[in-house]
Amino acid sequence: MRYGFGVWLCLASAAAASDRCPEPYRAGQLGHWANGAVFYQVFVRSFQDSDGDGVGDFNGLTSRLDYLNDGDPATSSDLGVDALWLLPITSSPSYHGYDTVDYDAVEPDYGTDADFDRFLAEAHERGIKVVMDLMLNHASAQHPWFLAANRSPEDRYHDWFVWADEDPGWVQPWGGSLTWHKSPTLDRYYYGLFWGGMPDLNFENPEVRAEMIAVARRWLARGVDGFRLDAARHIIEAGDEAKAGGSPETHAWWREFSAAVREDYPNALLIGENWTTADQVAEYFGDAPFTELDMSFNFDLAGALVGAVRDDTPGLIETTLCEVAALYPPHALDATFLTNHDMIRVMTQLRGDPTRARLAAGLLMTLPGVPFIYYGEEVGLPNGPGDEDPEKRTPMPWGDEDGFTTGTPWIINRKATTDASVARQQADPGSLWHHYRDLIALRRSQPALGRGGYAPVDLAGDGADNAIAWLRTRGSSRLLVAANFAPRPLVNVEVRAPAGDGPPVTLLGSVRAELTEDGAVLLPLIGPRELVVLDLDCGCAVP
Length: 543
Prior knowledge:
Largest sheet: 8 strands, parallel, barrel
CATH superfamily of the largest domain: Glycosidases
Number of helices: 15
CATH class of the largest domain: Alpha Beta
Strand content: 15-25%
């Protein structure tokens, strides 16, 4: 028996997949606590205000920990995430916090040291790891070090920053603004890659390197579980070729930093923000585990995922994953995501379409890598009215009687809708929030999704250009994931694979698989923009 649209699996398709994706996808450091985790990215300023001043704070975040993970696997009112990434929490004159004035002090708007320590203890009590943003590349122009550096070239702190007697005229590598800025007091220019308010530190100075290592060790001693390392590839710009980042000197620094940090904190997670192509990202993992960075964000895949769902063109997803498999070393941990604080929110990119948002979430949670959810994505929080930076970081739409604040929010998102509120979506079993929770629970229950290998599967027949399928495998577990990107259903999808004693079990989606007379598996219907997960119970050898 044949059907018009076929998916061929097991031995035959394993060979085909191998031709298209010659290097098997590896799950990285299997013993690392981050492998298999689901991360949640939090902007403290916009998550929960506890004192009515319109600004989120540590006490507010603590009060919402049970929403993220209450520590009890038997409950269903929490998302079930395993780890948090906190956007900058150190003292800063800006709303975003990337220009710190004190590497050791928490932002006063967010609370006290005691408030942060209590939050950290409460998170750990629930089994939630906490990773914080660490901005080593640059400080604030209001930092005491930089103020001292501008008093005199003879000041101790002058050489803690990068100076030139004349403006070299460098432009930001992404085609933005000039990167050298006139000192307010000296006849010299200082280097500030991102803007004049964030002067770059001079990592060719041994004192700077020692202090930054000490900063990291002090936070680890306090109990944080690792760092997201901002602008990781821009630490040392060395020569014309390195203006875009990635100099050999930068890699040498990360090897030094990693070794020093891990002397007493071997489990610390080091995540690099390396906003570049996969071939350059691959260089930051080092030649063995723990020699450089553990994990880097996969910006190529993020663009491929959102673009595929937005435009109904899934082709780049497989290409990107196969490239990662070929380029990354075996110990690499791949940080996957849809959007983050620097990007237009995914619901806005998807034009407010909840069906597309569900598909995007399904892809993130069933493809390989360690997924990161940007706060609010789970309820479809859109951008604010514009595309400026603050509009990407507006308050969490709790929508309950407590809400984000009892006062006036520091910024108001007039694009947010009632439908995007946590309260409304938690009350609706068919909501995007429940979809995210179900996906996280499925990922936790299936080792093949959390730590398994990946192999693409051939599709044939009408509509194949609008669909992709792949295998996730670990040990004896064999899962098939199929995603329909078209606004119409796919009918009679045939899977040529032994299915054990009965049809495959549907783990996610509405499809109910049947067995054909010749032993194939028939999927009668995959709905419009639907993603399905099937337990194949397949005994064949699949990479």
